[in-house]
TrEMBL record, chain B:
Domain of life: Bacteria
UniProt-recorded name of the protein: Uncharacterized protein
Key words of the record: Signal
Stretch forming the signal peptide: 1-23
Organism: Qipengyuania marisflavi
UniProtKB/TrEMBL annotation, chain C:
Protein name: Peptidase M48
Organism: Qipengyuania marisflavi
GO biological process: proteolysis involved in protein catabolic process
Record-annotated Peptidase M48 domain positions: 90-260
UniProt KW keywords: Hydrolase, Metal-binding, Metalloprotease, Protease, Signal, Zinc
Family: Belongs to the peptidase M48 family.
Coiled-coil region: none
A single GO cellular-component term on record: membrane
Pfam families: Peptidase_M48
Cofactors, names only: Zn(2+)
Signal peptide: 1-20
A GO molecular function held by the record: metal ion binding
Cofactor binding note of this UniProt entry: Binds 1 zinc ion per subunit.
């Protein structure tokens, strides 16, 4: 029975990498931006892939009970807040809804790859103890140049985002209090996880990723959703100053980030290296 | 509950889907010949990261961007009667064991069966098998494809040979989108560079 | 990872018919609520709406899963069997997805999504057996067992939390689950629910004109297969344990009840159909692929039992396909004497005149392991003539002593 609960809670926790990091540090909030990266000047169109929003209630036992009404309300609030946030930044959001055919498959494949890439960034960049030496000073993950095929959907950037909320029910909040008093340990009341990532579709490069496993803002309300979106969009790349390129002309070159490899630092060989003498 | 959790982690680890949280990583510099897990020497053509944790004895795990994105594994000298990975469920999900009498085709099937058991699915397919040499010994080179639990389609290649009754095997796999094509050239050169020093 | 995790979320909430354990008794629903199989049914309360919403989202992802078998003919067939079993007016409530996974399982979510694993298709001997499982599933769905279970569980877990005031650690690590999680996240229905689903499947079978004895046959086959696996691997049979991979504990009581129900429903089953030939034809080209999936699991005992079941306990039932599969099974186990046995099965397979060309490959490789290189090479050359484009043709050519071109 417990195993079953576990499976359900785990499965509903969907966002895997945030999970592992959370377990390790009890909360994680990190943003990575490609150094010096700026959006192109002028009108920017951003494709929004699968805006995943899940809201439920955490029962006293810790199980998540999905709530369709909350989810739908929250989704509407979040989308509105997101639109507003980006309009203020001078960019336009294009919702990607197409699910069928070749393009649908392409979107699915890149969405899956994005999740895996984001997972790697979390594991190997944001979790410091697990950081890869070749990535120490670089944020150079990518979906590959072929991601440009997604531009056919009508945007120059791809925004992937996801939020998962499970609100503590009253019973759970009481237990939380009791547990603290009685020394039973910390019972998290509610789970609030979110991430957002931006891909430059000209290069396929992941230029910005924000992960937060303890988000604020009650997204069931308009104000809360605005707060959440503001949090999610922290350190979102700004637009480059410059002349707006008229349509049909040659593209403007965005400022190039400093080149990738940073491995020339000497690294002390590990004493456990290579299992000599076997 | 614990059981399940453990099983998942173990399987994910064995399947190369994740990396132990405590793993440390060391830089492997390109162009320098390097001893791998005991006996074999290889010369990488690009910089890699090497995990300080080994899946089994005489093995090493390398990656460039994260194991989910490019996973280069070395198994250097698997002995008679040993499986490719550590067995997490010896009784209920035993892994096939290596036998020095195996034909080159048997090595391919053994790898495939191991992958099928570890991945628990059946989308693992061998796409090409040809004779090849590893460190100057006759062996096999094969290509495969599979879809992992993250629904990301991956491709991979393996070079293997039985030398003095032990199996030496280098395997690489990466998402079909972008990552495989970016790395496979360098990996094949690395496989070609392998040699044994006595 | 994310996308799959969502698929996972769906599967976690799927109801599987195959597990029965002690769970609190089913709450009896007194008022005649609309059945979820009714046309235009809408979820009734907040909990059901929430579950449906998550399920619908998950279904959208499921459609993109690379594990889906998309073959329209096979999908049409399975749908046809369900419709024949529960009737044309009720079957549209179910949306069937065939998953390429070698384990024996099927499940149905509260919103009507039905998962059928390819391992189930491999194990059914005839259409009536498939109908029995689909009918069983459909009953779980129509009686809203998973919904009731979710409510039940909620109460129960609340109680546990109140009693212990123990930190409920959220199992983040478990979310890294691989494909196994899907199989593992099996619902444990109560005995009453299972009884209800059993009775439901018998009723459906009888009404559809299928032989209702198929139901008890499915469970006895599965129990025997688990015994065979356990014997070879020297562990306790899975049929005796719960939890992960616990599929269907065969209780004598339950088997007896099923048989009695079948007897009562159709006293003279001689006119009832099993449609074995139709079933075999429908599986057609899929069968060799599914048996390969099974052989790859290296479950010698279980697979050996399975093959014998499919041969129907009749020496003449050993077709070229089955003999080939048996040869592959022995060759893969590679224990003492296995290569000689394997070579024998491959020879028998070839003698039937209707076997996959891979029998020649198997024969060649088995002979070479036996030290009979000339004959082995000759068999490999026969295979290469039949399948010059095989994935491993280049390697086999060198092994067969042909020069590389």
């Amino acid at each position: 029975m417990k195993a079953l609960l576990t499976a359900i809670v785990a499965a509903l926790l969907l966002f895997v990498p945030a999970g592992s990091a959370h377990a390790q540090f009890g909360g994680l909030e990190r943003t990575e931006v490609k150094e010096g990266y700026q959006l192109k000047p002028g009108a920017v169109q951003i494709l929004v892939f699968r805006p995943d929003v899940h809201v439920g209630e955490q029962t006293t036992g810790g199980m998540n009970e999905p709530n369709a009404e909350w989810t739908q309300t929250a989704k509407a609030h979040i989308m509105a807040a997101l639109e507003q946030e980006h309009l203020a930044r001078g960019s336009q959001l294009v919702m990607v809804t197409q699910e069928d055919g070749e393009m649908g498959e392409l979107v699915a494949d890149y969405t899956a790859l994005f999740g895996t890439v984001a997972n790697s960034v979390l594991n190997h960049k944001m979790v410091r103890s697990n950081r890869l030496p070749t990535k120490r000073d670089a944020f150079d993950w990518t979906l590959g140049e072929d991601a440009a095929r997604l531009k056919a959907l009508g945007g120059d950037y791809g925004l992937f985002f996801y939020t998962y909320d499970s609100y503590g029910s009253t019973g759970r909040k009481i237990i939380q209090g009791l547990a603290l008093v009685l020394g039973g340990g910390f019972v998290p009341s509610g789970v609030h996880i979110g991430y957002a990532g931006l891909v430059d579709l000209d290069t396929g490069d992941l230029v910005w990723l924000n992960v937060d496993t303890s988000m604020g803002g009650d997204i069931r309300t308009a104000e809360g959703a605005q707060k959440r979106v503001a949090q999610l969009m922290e350190e979102f790349p700004v637009r480059a100053e410059g002349v707006v390129v008229p349509e049909g002309t040659v593209t403007f070159d965005p400022p190039l980030p400093p080149d990738g490899p940073v491995d020339d630092e000497p690294v002390v060989a590990s004493p456990t290296a290579a299992g000599d003498g076997q | 509950m614990k059981r399940l959790g453990k099983l998942f982690i173990a399987l994910a680890l064995a399947a190369g889907l994740t990396t132990p949280a405590q793993a440390g990583w060391r830089l492997v510099e390109k162009g320098e010949e390097r001893k791998v897990a005991g006996r074999m020497y290889v010369t990488p053509t690009e910089d890699w990261n090497r995990s300080t944790i080994r899946p089994v004895s005489r093995s090493e795990v390398w990656t460039r961007d994260g194991r989910e994105l490019n996973d280069l594994d070395f198994f250097m000298g698997i002995k008679d009667g040993k499986p490719l990975f550590r067995e997490t469920h010896r009784k209920r999900a035993p892994l096939p064991k290596f036998d020095p009498a195996m034909l080159p085709t048997d090595i391919v099937e053994w790898y495939q069966d191991t992958a099928n058991i570890v991945l628990g699915g059946s989308l693992f397919a061998i796409t090409e098998v040809k004779p090849a040499r590893l460190a100057g010994y006759d062996g096999v080179h094969f290509a495969f494809s599979y879809t992992g639990s993250d629904n990301v389609e991956r491709k991979g290649e393996v070079r293997a040979a039985i030398i003095d009754s032990r199996l030496y095997l280098i395997s690489f796999d990466a998402p079909s989108l972008y990552y495989f094509d970016r790395n496979i050239g360098g990996v094949r050169v690395l496989m070609d560079s392998a040699r044994l020093k006595r | 990872m994310k996308q799959f995790a969502i698929t996972l979320a769906a599967s976690a909430l799927f109801a599987s018919p195959l597990a029965a354990q002690d769970v609190a008794a089913v709450e009896q629903v007194a008022d005649p609520a609309p059945l979820p199989s009714a046309h235009g049914y809408e979820p009734q309360d907040d909990l059901e709406k929430g579950l449906w919403y998550e399920m619908d989202e998950a279904e959208r992802r499921l459609k993109q899963s690379k594990f889906l078998i998309e073959d329209p003919a096979l999908n049409d067939y399975v749908r046809g069997v369900l419709c024949r079993t529960v009737g044309e007016d009720r079957c549209p409530a179910a949306r069937i997805y065939l998953m390429r996974t070698p384990q024996f399982n099927a499940s149905m979510a509260p919103n009507g999504v039905m998962l059928v694993y390819s391992g189930l298709l491999l194990r059914m001997r005839d259409e009536a057996q498939l109908a029995a499982v689909l009918g069983h599933e459909f009953t779980h769905f129509e009686k809203q067992h998973s919904l009731r279970l979710f409510r039940n569980m909620r109460k129960k877990s609340d109680l546990m939390a109140w009693l212990s005031v123990a930190p409920v650690r959220l199992p983040y690590a478990a979310a890294m689950a691989t494909q196994f999680a899907v199989i593992g996240s099996v619902f444990s229905f109560s005995r009453d629910m299972e009884r209800e689903a059993d009775a439901g499947s018998i009723k459906e079978l009888a009404q559809a004109g299928y032989d209702p004895r198929a139901a008890s046959a499915v469970w006895s086959q599965l129990g025997a297969e688990m015994d065979a696996t356990a014997k070879e691997r020297r562990h306790r049979s899975n049929k005796k344990r719960g939890g992960l991979f616990a599929t269907h504990p065969r209780t004598t009581d339950r088997m007896g009840t099923l048989a009695q129900l079948a007897e009562a429903a159709v006293p003279d089953a001689s006119a009832a159909e099993t449609r074995a030939a139709e079933y075999r034809a429908a599986l057609g080209d899929w069968w060799p692929q599914l048996i390969d999936d099974q052989i790859a699991l290296q479950d010698f005992g279980g697979t050996e039992y399975l093959l014998a079941t499919l041969a129907g306990g009749d020496p003449a039932g050993w077709t070229g396909d089955l003999l080939y599969a048996r040869g592959e099974l022995y060759r893969a186990r590679a224990k003492e004497g296995d290569f000689a046995q394997a070579a024998d099965f491959f020879r028998q397979a070839i003698a039937t005149g209707d076997t996959p060309p891979e029998s020649w490959r198997g024969l060649g490789l088995a002979l070479m392991r036996l030290g009979n290189k000339p004959e082995g090479q000759e068999a490999l050359r026969s295979y290469l003539t039949l399948r010059p484009q095989a994935a491993d043709a280049a390697l086999l050519r060198t092994m067969a002593g042909e020069t590389l071109s």
